[in-house]
Design goal:
Layout lengths: L3 H17 L7 E2 L1 H8 L3 H13 L3 E4 L3 E4 L4 H21 L14 H14 L4 H14 L6 H4 L3 H13 L4 H17 L1 H9 L7
Antiparallel strand pairs: 1-3, 2-3
Helix pairs in contact: 1-3, 2-3, 4-5, 4-6, 4-9, 4-10, 5-6, 5-8, 8-9
Protein name: HTH gntR-type domain-containing protein
GO molecular function, one term: DNA-binding transcription factor activity
Pfam family, one: GntR
Length: about 200
């Protein structure tokens, strides 16, 4: 196993690339090339990829190496459902008060990720926080297709952000979260096609 001071930044760098859609869906990840690009040895790269395989963000195929995971329609819907269940559990256990603010300077996908974490963190349940963070990481890249598939996504964000910031009644926040997830589940086939056809981006 790689030393933590090498492994952790390597893992985070590869994970950020996956969440940002740097590689095409299903593409083989060349560990040696990634090691060269990050200026590290092959060991922390392979250790990171095996960890990401366990997190289902990459797929390891014996004899073929590591590949970018394809988030199929059924898996996408299942993740949305579990994400919603956990958020509703967080809302149900949330004490009165205000959530941490979310930076408005971030890209749209990151703002939603931080907003959902803010909801989770108010629950004071570490397992809910960790689970929402992990599922959010797997859904993160799909959020980049929201504007192309759905309408008024910025207005949707503002409604949820305002409800969280102003500690709106639980019923109101639950309704907004349910609507967010239902809209995406309804278009799961379009999300799956967009993810499957993604050509990757320049590093």
């Amino acid at each position: 196993m790689s030393p933590a001071h090498v492994f952790e930044p390597t893992y985070e760098a590869i994970k950020r690339r996956l969440m940002g859609g740097i590689w095409p869906t299903g593409a083989r990840i060349e560990a040696a090339r990634v090691a060269d690009e990050l200026g590290v040895s092959l060991t922390p790269v392979r250790d990171s990829l095996f960890r990401l395989d366990g997190e289902r963000m990459v797929d390891f195929r014996p004899g073929e190496g590591f590949h970018v995971h394809y988030l199929a329609e059924t898996e996408f819907r299942d993740l949305l459902e579990l994400h919603l269940i956990l958020l509703l559990a967080a809302v149900a256990t949330t004490p009165k008060g205000f959530a941490a603010s979310v930076s408005a300077d971030q890209p749209y996908p990151d703002r939603f990720a931080d907003l959902f974490l803010a909801i989770a963190e108010r629950s004071s349940n570490g397992e809910i926080v960790a689970s929402i963070a992990a599922i959010g990481d797997r859904l993160q890249f799909s959020r980049q297709f929201d504007a192309a598939i759905l309408s008024e996504v910025e207005a949707e964000y503002q409604r949820i952000e305002t409800a969280v910031a102003e500690a709106a009644p639980q019923a109101e926040l639950r309704g907004l979260l349910l609507g967010y997830h239902e809209r995406r589940a309804h278009e799961s086939a379009r999300y799956a096609r967009a993810l499957g056809n993604h050509p990757g981006r320049d590093v």
